Amino acid sequence: MTSKIIDGKKIAESILEKSKQKAKKADEKPGLAIVLVGNNPASEIYVGLKEKKANELGFHCERFNLAEDIKQDELLNIVDDLNQNEKIHAMIVQLPLPKQIDEQLIIGAILPHKDADGFTSVNLGNLVNDNNKLLPATARACMELIKSTGVEIKGKNAVVVGRSNIVGKPTALLLLQENATVTICHSKTKNLAEHTKNADILVVACGKAKLITKDMVKPGAIVIDVGINRVMGKIVGDVDFDNVKEVAGHITPVPGGVGPMTIAMLLDNTLQAMELRR
Ligand code: GUN
User: Which domain range does residue 158 map to?
Assistant: First the structure.
C-alpha cells in the first residue's frame, strides 16, 4: 500500500485565503504582536514565516526582537504594554525562552483573550472543560489535517507521542473531544512500538528525527508528523516518511504538512481574538 500524502500546504492556503477575506471585511486590521527573545535560529525562521503570512493577509503585525539577556521584568513590561495596546488583538511569545526567564510566568501574564497560542492556563483550562476558545495552533493544525482525510475519529485508537503543553497534551484532549480512545506516550514509555502499532491515528511530536519506523505503524493508519529536525542540513520529521508512507493510509510530509497549517491556525486564532474583544 502507498499512502495518500496529506498536503498541509494546500489545505493551509485555502484557510489563509478565507482569513484574508475576513481581514479585508473587518472594520479594523487584525493586530498580532510577535515577541522573539534571543537568536535561536529555528525560532527566527518560525517567527519570520508567521510575520510574513500575517503581513500577506493584511494584518497589522508588530514584531519585537529582544536581547537574549533581557531581564524578566523588562519582558513582563512589554507583554503588559501589548495587553493594553488597542491595535493588538493577539500576541505570541515565541518559545523556548532563555533560562533566566520563567516561561510560565510570561505566558501567564498574557491576557487570555489576547493569547493567540492558547497557552495560558485559562485557555488550556477551557480546553479541558470542552469549552474551546483560543486553542494551541499546532494542536488545531493536527486536528484539521486528520479531519481532512474524511476518516471518522470516533471510537478510533489515537496515540500521541510527546506530552508537551504546546502540542502533545492539547492534541490528546482534542482527540478525546472527538471520542477517540487516546494514549499519550513519552520518553519514559516502555515499548513504544507496542502502543504505536495499535494506533489508527498516530500523532508524533517528540523532536526525535525518524523515531517512528515502518514496523511501528499499523497498516492504513493516519500519521501526523509534527517534528522538525535538521539532519545533515536537511529538514526531517519524527517519522521515517519514505518508509512509513508504504504502510500508512494517510501521512503528512515534513516540510509541507503540520508547519504551514500551524501558521494558518495562528492567524485564524488572531481573527478569533479580535472577535472575542468585540
Ligand atoms: N515554539 C514552538 N512552537 C511554538 C508555538 O506554536 N508558539 C510559540 N509561541 N512558541 C513555539
Answer: 136-259
Per the domain annotation, does 10 fall within a domain? no
Is 117 catalytic? The answer is yes
Strand-pairing partners, residue 236, are 229
Per-residue model confidence (pLDDT) at position 2: 80
| pLDDT of 1 higher than 80 | no
pLDDT, mean of residues 213-227: 98
Please state whether the predicted TM-score (pTM) of the whole model is above 0.85.
Answer: yes
Q: Quick check: 202 and 225 in contact, CB under 8 A?
A: no
Q: Is the dihedral of CA 229, 259, 80, 88 positive or negative?
A: positive
Based on the domain organization, do 88 and 178 belong to the same domain?
no
In a domain, 278, yes or no: no
**Is 94 noted as a catalytic residue in this protein?**
yes
Please give the distance, rounded to the nearest whole angstrom, from the Cα atom of residue 94 to the centre of ligand 1.
5
Same structural domain, 147 and 55: no
Question: What letter would DSSP give residue 239?
Answer: B
Q: Which of 117, 225, 238, 268 is catalytic?
A: 117
Residue 20 lies in a domain: no
114 is catalytic: no
Chain segment 74-100, per-residue pLDDT in tens: 999 999 999 999 999 999 999 999 999
Residues 159 and 255 in one domain: yes
What residue's CA is closest to ligand 1, atom 9?
A: 94
Residue with the smallest CA separation from ligand 1 atom 3 is: 95
- The answer to whether 36 touches 43, Cβ cutoff 8 Å, is yes
Q: Looking at the structure, do residues 63 and 141 belong to the same domain, yes or no?
A: no
Q: Does 269 contact ligand 1 (Cβ within 6 A)?
A: no
Q: Where are the extended beta strands (E) located within 69-187?
A: 90-93, 157-161, 181-185
Mean pLDDT of the chain: 97
| Domain membership flag for residue 268 | no
Q: Which of 50, 53, 169, 210 is catalytic?
A: 50
pLDDT tens per residue across span 5-15: 999 999 999 99
